[in-house]
Amino acid sequence: MTTVRRTFLKNSAAAAMAAALPSLNFAQTPAQRSLFAPQSGAWRTFEVTTRVDILKPQGVTKVWLPIPSVNSDYQRSFESGFSSNGQTDLADDGRDGAKMLYAEFAEGEAKPFVELTSRVQTQGRAVDWSQKTHVHEEADTLRYFTRATKFLPTDGIVRKTALQATQGAKTDVEKTRLIYDWIVANTYRDPKVRGCGEGDIKTMLETGNLGGKCADLNALFVGLCRSVGIPARDVYGIRLVPSSFGYKELSGNPASLKGAQHCRSEVFLKGYGWVAMDPADVAKVMRLETADWIKNTSNPVVAPVNKALFGGWEGNWMAFNTAHDLALPHSTGEKLGFFMYPTAENPDGRFDSYAPDDFKYQITAKEI
Length: 368
Prior knowledge:
With 368 residues, the chain is an alpha+beta fold. The protein has 2 domains: 4-11 and 42-123 and 321-367, no CATH class; 125-319, C8orf32 fold. It has helices spanning 14-19, 139-144, 156-165, 172-186, 201-207, 214-227, 279-288, 303-308, 356-359; strands spanning 4-8, 44-53, 61-67, 75-84, 87-92, 99-105, 113-122, 125-126, 188-189, 211-212, 232-239, 261-269, 273-277, 312-313, 317-321, 343-346, 349-350, 361-367.
């Protein structure tokens, strides 16, 4: 089968805008750590490439790759191109707008491969809590982001926990602050959890096992917010380059983005719109940034991160989508709880997306 190459464009101005961007120095080390205070400002342009090679094909093999589909005040998703020796198609999941490249390889294809390159622009975020503005969002959209999903129930122990955490709060901002603080105080980063975790928040609360990774801790934050009527969503993506503030645990290695997937969260607050949140990264810094597990948010390593990630993100990260309970087209497997990893299956079942060396995929990034 001949190789298929295709490029689809969203904004022809991307290259021109990228040329105007300043180059940034990522030579900082933890010892040179500066105040963590992301701000919006100059846009940064990245090309992100995912390459999948099926080393031992068995029967018909199917591959799905997430395509960045978020366009917002912090990300512009521009163009993507791909090549493959299989049959390819572009798809999305409908309501959530999660876009993907689908590749299917016939039995007998000796060396199946697919490569996807996407271009995005990103910038940091930081809400100004002293300034309220009128931000409109459709009522249907806000209702949608208070719904329950398979792993994000909004009743029972989830709502009970949220009501306890927000006791005494009168506004949505106050409730969100208390839930954020509750996550930071009561959950913890568990390095033994595979990948980004599963985000099964009911099980976490029922068992009392509040350790996990970003898809667990930020999902718990989102579920607690939704259960008290605050629109909230997970945003699934990947870190692309080192942190400009010297935090190694908040960085990506652009030459090899193995394990760089990271989900963040947002809440919609009247007067502020969709606001960035990331209590899971506070837990990551507390557990892994230094040789000792830091358990106090007043620690000078943790304090600026804890403050900034209530309302802000650093722009060294790319969002894919906000989809939950996603059904992959042409798949015989179960729905995905979320979609930020390459996914594949053959007649024997799904590949292990958390094992890139066995699955044989590589993700790299380049700032342009």
